[in-house]
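quick one, 335 residues, struct below
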Amino acid sequence: MQLIAGLAPVPETCRGGVVAIGNFDGVHRGHQTLLAVAAEEGARLGCPWGVMSFEPHPRSFFRPDEPVFRLTPQALKARLVGALGAAFTAVLDFDKALSDLSPEDFVRLHLVERMGVRHVVMGYDFHFGKGRKGSPATMTELGAKFGFGVTIVDQVTDEGDQHSPFSSSNIRQALRHGYVTAAARDLGYHWTVLGEVVRGDQRGRTIGFPTLNIVLGKGADPFRGIYAVRVRDALTPGAEVWSGAGYFGDRPTFDTGRTFLEVYLIGFDGDLYGRQLFVEFIDLIRPDKRFASIDELVTQMKADCAAAMTRLEAVQADDPVAALPLGRLQAEGMI
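---
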């Protein structure tokens, strides 16, 4: 997949195609439906299709003091979109210049002149241009003016009337409460962190549980606790899968005052510093808590590892998302 960053020249192979436009944080099942529409339109027109998104998240630009809990930072979003078959991802810098463009100027400059777009696909609730004045109706009118087609995708829900529409906000809330199975159902794959292993304070080694430390982006706010996780090398398709117990929290027993993502790989003995890893959150084991002693903590960690293995074995036998497109690719180690 071709990545087109900022105002970089657009390769001719990516021009004249279908563009799905939006933030696509999470690339959840609603987004996946929209991208499937773009893929179908690309096949019908015999042209490439891809995605146009924005960095930073527009909310971060307008409210910089309120970091957004990003479900899929750009690197992971691109991996997911590419796995669904997109030929390109165009990432526009969301800055003052972009935010000041009128809806028509945005379409003319970025879709017509730069991308030579033949068709645009967008969600029913996506707005663009200065003051968010550009609506789906606006895009349809501008498509008629500039000579490209437009498809507006309505809200997408699961089968049945009791399920609310798939939404990034709902998924964030589920993860904040530790409902990782519910989040996986809406995402269509197990929520995943992509990050580099960095050196920590080596505290885990002193108590017999050496952990991998991964830095999360600002605003990341899942439930503080212990999780059953699966871990893979992100740069090697089909790489070995390691079972683990993941920890997200502030280490209350040690009064660190900092937030951590730590993963203990069960039965693994090796050096992964500097490696890019996927950490898939499969299930919540328990909330974070303070322990009266290190011995009590170690005893609990042994129980957590046993619980993690039980949960991982159960999901391997009956994975709730394995039949969905990204869930299947994740299970096969392709993303």
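The chain has two domains: 2-153, 178-331.
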